[in-house]
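Internal QA ticket QA-208
Title: Verify multi-chain structure generation after dependency bump
Assignee: T.L.

Test input:
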Amino acid sequence: MTDKIALTPKTHTTPPAKFSHGVKKGNILQVAGQVGFLPAEEGKPPTPAGPTLREQTLQTLANVRAILEEGGATWDDAMMIRVYLTDTGHFAELNEIYDRYFEEQGLTQVPAARTTVYVGLPKGLLVEIDALAVLD
Amino acid sequence: MTDKIALTPKTHTTPPAKFSHGVKKGNILQVAGQVGFLPAEEGKPPTPAGPTLREQTLQTLANVRAILEEGGATWDDAMMIRVYLTDTGHFAELNEIYDRYFEEQGLTQVPAARTTVYVGLPKGLLVEIDALAVLD
Amino acid sequence: MTDKIALTPKTHTTPPAKFSHGVKKGNILQVAGQVGFLPAEEGKPPTPAGPTLREQTLQTLANVRAILEEGGATWDDAMMIRVYLTDTGHFAELNEIYDRYFEEQGLTQVPAARTTVYVGLPKGLLVEIDALAVLD
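Actual output:
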């Protein structure tokens, strides 16, 4: 039997429901939908990194990365990144932020696949990202 | 060669197109997007469990679970649950229903990761859920 | 160490950001969100196959298939197909196109699971599709 392990970075806010921020079983790692919440502070409600797409996207990517690392993975192991935006007008800026971010990550493997769609998100949130990784 | 097996609970309505309600290949099990349709009845069109979020969500989760079980899996094997709602105003109630449901399922492992986004669905449907599971 | 391989059919337009059209690692193959862009032509911007749902869906499916094939897979290996439409009014037509297409593909295994939701897409695009495959 292979256990399913919860991946819960210390910095993360408590999920609003009975789900894990990330799980790993065997060589499969799944990251739950992350948003741009700053590291949790005792007694404060979850707070987005800022009102801009840039601030929220960078914080969201940091949150996804923390979960990958909690499971012993890196961006190099990511197979699929799902990006949920709220406004098609954000696509170009998201791509610019995304590209710059990944250039700085020092990937040694090819980038993950990606799907970007435009959905509704709770008020104040501009981006949500989840990821599927396959470890060695 | 590893066969891909279709998972088709007897209670399920016929899919509206050439897709499987669930498939399993090796240790990977994928559940197609389920909605809150009641068990199929001969000669009747697919009918949602009720007009409320609670009725539809519980029926949808039952429909996902039936497919997991058809493949020899349980909620404990679920890695990722994708929840599609139509209204951000439903988030709190969905979480309450979701938590209560999973408390009653007697999970022995950590809960699956989850992503929740707000999309359009066909008229009358308030929630759609799919799931990825990894078996032992 | 298992390498993650990028799957980039020659016909495909350059992705608008640092992601791969498809990746394969071990027996897992993930296809990025594809739209109905015609085969790339030097010096021309990406152009959809046509304005209709039929034209765009068939081109999108061809684009997904090209990535599967680049990874040594076929539709028979597809476990999950995610269809993003922009209009619930397109569901019946999408299903008719989808069924006809897959009848012509000569599948030897059961069809993949599928989730269809309605989202926003960039102007002019009516459908986006991604896929997860598990190879033998």
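Spot checks passed. Strands of chain B lie at 4-6, 22-25, 28-34, 78-85, 113-118, 127-134.
Status: verified.
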